[in-house]
Amino acid sequence: MPHPIMFDDDDPILVRVREVALALPDTTEVVAHGRPTFRCGKMFGNYGGSVKGSRTRHDQSLLFIPDAAERAALLADPRFYLPAYLGAYGWLGILLDDDSDWTEVAELLDASYRQIAPKRSIAKLDSR
């Protein structure tokens, strides 16, 4: 049985996340477990998630792989959370709203992308 869809294509926050994520070379969007995921071969972004150990859902959030050196500092910020399932693998979530800093979101996605993307895709990004 497929997962229920847990997003709305007309969500303006999702539209912004898509613009940022799909601008990265060789990126695709795939719906997995009812949520949009962004991939370059492997997944580097996930729209929406829930808090580990809780049933609290954050439908307008972005899950990403942080730079290991920044992980602790990010978790100290109340906008960030440890997501269920992916948190055990080093992922974090950031809560998004109309006032989100989209430059910061782009930087977080860029760092996540660089951890999983093939060298040729990273070279395309760096040549821009």
Automatic annotation (TrEMBL):
Pfam family, one: YjbR
Lineage, opening ranks: Bacteria, Bacillati, Actinomycetota, Actinomycetes, Mycobacteriales
Keywords assigned: DNA-binding
Tagged with keyword Phosphoprotein: no
InterPro entries membership: YjbR-like_sf (IPR038056), YjbR/MT2646/Rv2570-like (IPR058532)
GO molecular function, one term: DNA binding
Protein name: MmcQ/YjbR family DNA-binding protein
Matches recorded under SUPFAM superfamilies: YjbR-like
